[in-house]
Amino acid sequence: MAVVVNVWIARTVRDDGPTPVDYTSFVEQVRSGNVESVRIDGLTLEADLRREVVLPVGAAEATRSIEAARPEFAADDVLDVLVADGVPVTDAGDGDGGGWPFTVLVTFGPAVLIVLGALWLLRRAGGGAAGFTGFGRSRATRYERPGQRVTFADVAGVDEAKEELREIVDVLREPERYRSVGARAPRGVLLLGPPGTGKTLLARAVAGEADVPFFSQSASEFIEMIVGVGASRVRDLFDRAKAEAPSIVFIDELDAIGRTRGGFAGLGGVDEREQTLNQILTEMDGFDPNQGVIVLAATNRPDVLDPALLRAGRFDRRVALNAPDHAGRLAILGVHARHVPLAAGFDMADVASLTPGMVGADLANLVNEAALSAARAGRGAVGRDDFLAALERILLGAERRITIPEHERRRTAYHEAGHALAGMLQEGADPVRKVSIIPRGRSLGVTYQSPSGDQYSVGERYLQGRIIGALAGRAAEHLVFGEATTGAEADLELATALARSMVGRWGMSPVVGPVAVLSADDPSPVGLPMDGTSEAMRNLVDEEVRRIVVESLGRARDLLAEHRGRLDDLAAALLERETLDEDDARRVAGLAPVAQRDARRGLGSSG
User: Can you list the positions of beta strands (E) in 269-338?
Assistant: First the structure.
């Protein structure tokens, strides 16, 4: 870089100098008496002229300063002519070109500027006056209590986790009460759970409840390209925490640096992530029990964490956060709707019943979308219709305003009617909440089904019913139009994924048997085989998956053919009204309303 800059400056300086000419032209100017002064630098002659000339001939501009290289074999009387005419002749080194200071500046100046610029950037990145050592400073944020703070009252649906963390706060507030009976505070608490279940919110609530310093930092902020910086930042963070003990350190997304060691070979065999993890292990294991520093960490990938992190003495407690049940969802909705005006007579329990599987972040988004829906409609209070519209927008996507040809609308109506009818007739299927042929997201139509209550374990019959329901749309197209379309792509993916999990993960195939063949940690719909699985077993899994899907498609076709009249009625109603809710769909299909159906099954009202 410095060399390039030097060359550029040298060329820039050179561009302002004399005009190069051939030696013959130079001699002609001397003999014609047009030379005012001459500077000599070795074999290079520079001359200032008395009047402007155009050299070389045909040049665009005239010049009054020229230079030429004198050939070594030249034996002329140029010098004698110059002396005779009284022209001053000087050595170029004694001229006004700047001398050695100018030469040093041009040669070393750019390099010095680059070094100074790099130092300035390093000081800014490292925290001002810290200079190079600033790179090793922790970027943790110290929580300050004044202002709007989060407490346990702002966290709902995770009562067991709150109780675990309340004890941590109590230990920090009254350490002597626990120390008097020989108890010590846990050194680390690991918060486990899927994204959105409230791990970070719980940590913020601990900060709001505890009267102790709270340092928060994301695990990814420890890592830099410079080797050793992560470990230095860990040391700095824990030094700050120990200096203000009792205190709490919170590390978010711990799996960013806590993955099992040995799988990350960095440059030169040194891995910055492993060094950072090693430093965390050392700091946690080296605590004096009386120092009063507790580490909270959150992750949604506990399966990839290094075993050394999870052993007793480091993260002594593991607090699991899962998707809330009905009561938990109702409490979470109540927390997020505290500042939302609700319509008179509206019961939030209805919304909680329609949102199984949703976590805290989803429910917070649902409340906000419902409020936005009410605001768009100009209503002063949020009601059931707003929540249903928000739920559709989140789960099904926003409506697309496109014009669909009539023959495609009819095909879509039969496709969705097939899904809905199979869902209403198939034993064990989730209730059909809404059927629509209004394009949403990537789909031309949707059939929304959700269970009546929370499910923690499902049976083989239920899974088979879901596969049949997923394939019923294609079965309806075959039955009515005699051909398949691309509209069943997502249905085929769902059916294949369920069948593959039944065969390879849950041992629900009599051919494969009660063995686990596919990895449960693989998030893809295909499912990767576990280590040591033979090629023959993989082929057997593929054959069983195909058998289940083909048989389910046949059963769906038979079911719809048996109830063809109901299928036609549902499709006609969809073409006329575009959207049917649960009661309307059952009424069109000639089935009992929701209340009678649930009473007959002994379930009671779903609301």
Answer: 293-299, 317-320
Instruction: Look up the pTM and report it.
Output: 0.67
Query: Are the C-beta atoms of residues 167 and 293 closer than 8 Å to each other?
Result: no
**What is the rounded distance in angstroms from the CA atom of residue 513 to the CA atom of residue 490?**
28
Cα–Cα distance for residue pair 216/221, rounded to 1 Å: 11
Q: Whole-angstrom Cα distance, residue 517 to residue 531?
A: 9
User: What is the separation, in whole angstroms, between the first and last Cα of the chain?
Assistant: 72
CATH placement of domain 2-97:
3.30.720.210
CB 420 within 8 A of CB 470: no
357 vs 361: CA distance, rounded Å: 12
Q: Who contacts 390 (Cβ-Cβ below 8 Å, separation ≥6)? A: 366, 369, 370, 372, 373
Contact present, 448 and 602 (Cβ < 8 Å): no
For residue 561, the tally of other CB atoms under 10 A from its CB is: 13
Kindly indicate whether the domain formed by 141-320 is annotated with CATH number 3.40.50.300: yes
Comparing CA positions, the residue from 185, 220, 375 lying closest to residue 291 is 185
CATH code of 406-601, in short, is 1.20.58.760
Tokens for 170? 């109590």
Tens digit of each residue's pLDDT (9 = 90 or more) over 422-471: 989 887 778 888 888 888 877 888 888 877 777 778 888 889 999 999 99
Q: State which fold the 336-396 domain adopts.
A: Helicase, Ruva Protein; domain 3 (1.10.8)
pLDDT recorded at residue 291: 65
CB atoms closer than 10 angstroms to residue 327 = 14
The SS3 of residue 593 is coil
Confidence at residue 573, expressed as pLDDT on a 0 to 100 scale: 92
Catalytic residues: 416
Written as one string, the DSSP assignment of 71-126 is PTT----HHHHHHHTT--EEEGGGSSS-HHHHHHHHHHHHHHHHHHHHHHHHHHHH
The set of residues, in sequence order, having a beta carbon less than 8 Å from that of 505 and lying 6+ positions away, is 516, 517, 518, 520, 527
**pLDDT at residue number 26:** 83
Better pLDDT: 441 or 132: 441
Half-sphere exposure of 75 (CA within 13 A, CB side): 1
The tokens describing 174, both together, are 């009254």
